[in-house]
Amino acid sequence: MRRGRGALMVATRIWTPAWPCPVGQVWSTWRRGAGDPTYRITGADGVRHHWRGLRTPEGAATLAVRVRGSEGVVEASAWGEGAAWALEHVPAMLGADDDPTGFTPRHPLLVAAHRAHPHFRVGRGGVVMAALVPAVIEQKVTGQEAFAGFRRLVRRFGTHAPGAPEEIDLWLPPTPEELRHIPSWEWLRLGIDHARSTTVLRAASVSAGLERTLAGSFSAADARLRTVPGIGVWTSAEVRSRAHGDPDAVAFGDYHVARNIGWALIGEQIDDDALLELLEPYRGQRYRVQRLLELAGHHHPRHGARMAPRTHLPR
User: Fold this and answer.
1) Distance between CA 97 and CA 121 in Å, rounded?
2) Cα separation of the two ends of the chain
3) pTM beyond 0.90, yes or no
4) Which pLDDT belongs to residue 314?
5) SS3 letters for 199-245?
């Protein structure tokens, strides 16, 4: 340990994964748009630092990770009360607990996607609320509206990340307790309607129980998450794929996922029922199929203007 910026101490860890770890690929799902205040990327392509503001079980933390050149060595630095927790969980966050050996792609496009991204792993974030809050905010709205809502929430009710350089402007999301004290009219000013804010508040009120799902099976986590009114199949999958590292948590109910996978694998836009049947041979690894096709850039043809964000909520 050595002294960091200000009075904070910086803790460091060197970890050599058993595979060439693509930090950006594994962590890209945590970044909620290019302007996400809780995730920053600095440096050039060859030496990129990935910065994250985290609410860990042991307190606030800033985590900075980079891969050292061609050696494949991961260098991690962390600041704040949760620094030790963050460094301990770096391997799991980057996919060390994921086992892709049972995955056998069959379709030529999926074979090609797997060949192009052979080192992708499903990371285990280890904090349920970090994945759940932005997932709820993304329910039934455009990506633009969702990212803007989360960004406003963090900047209005979050705090600056400990030890992070001022120039990168890294933030921490609000804690569950802080979420519970946000008045209803403030949610509307953030552009987050009553249905979504109510779901966030319900989850925040039972956050300790939701965090305990990390110690059980994926199916048990799914069942527990969905006991919270407002959390359904899609939101549970979005949380489990990030926080729990569930390689089978395909996002049924998503506006694009079924159509994208159907178009890639059979040349048709399909619904969730057809997607369930199409992905049956990959059961246990269905999210891996979804993510590999996303990384490869496969999606259904999109025509016309993008859907505009709603304008009836105050700002």
Assistant:
1) 9
2) 44
3) yes
4) 56
5) HHHHHHHCHHHHHHHHHCCHHHHHHHHCCCCCCCHHHHHHHHHHHHC
Long-range contacts of 31-37 (CB under 8 A, 24+ apart): 32/134, 32/138, 32/146, 32/147, 32/150, 32/151, 33/143, 33/147, 33/148, 33/150, 33/151, 35/147, 35/151, 36/147, 36/150, 36/151, 37/151, 37/154, 37/155, 37/158, 37/169, 37/170, 37/171
Question: Averaged in consecutive runs of 10 residues, what is the pLDDT profile of the chain (315 residues)?
Answer: 57 96 96 97 86 98 91 94 98 97 94 97 98 97 95 98 97 98 97 97 98 98 98 98 98 94 95 97 97 91 56 55
- Environment class of 12 (CB within 10 Å of its CB; exposed 0-12, middle 13-18, buried 19+): middle
> Cβ atoms within 10 A of the Cβ of 185, count?
9
For 2, the 3-state DSSP assignment is strand
Block residue for tokens 């079924």: 258
CA atoms of 274 and 143, how far apart (whole Å): 25
Contact 244, 214 (CB under 8 A): yes
What are the Cα distances from residue 289, in Å, to 120, 127, 134, 261?
11, 24, 23, 8
Residues in the chain: 315
Q: What is the pLDDT of residue 97?
A: 97
- Per the listing, tokens 């455009």 go with 142
- Of the candidates 83, 87, 94, the one whose C-alpha atom is nearest the C-alpha of residue 124 is 94
- Please list the residues that pair with 62 across neighbouring strands: 53, 79
Give the three-class secondary structure for 30: helix
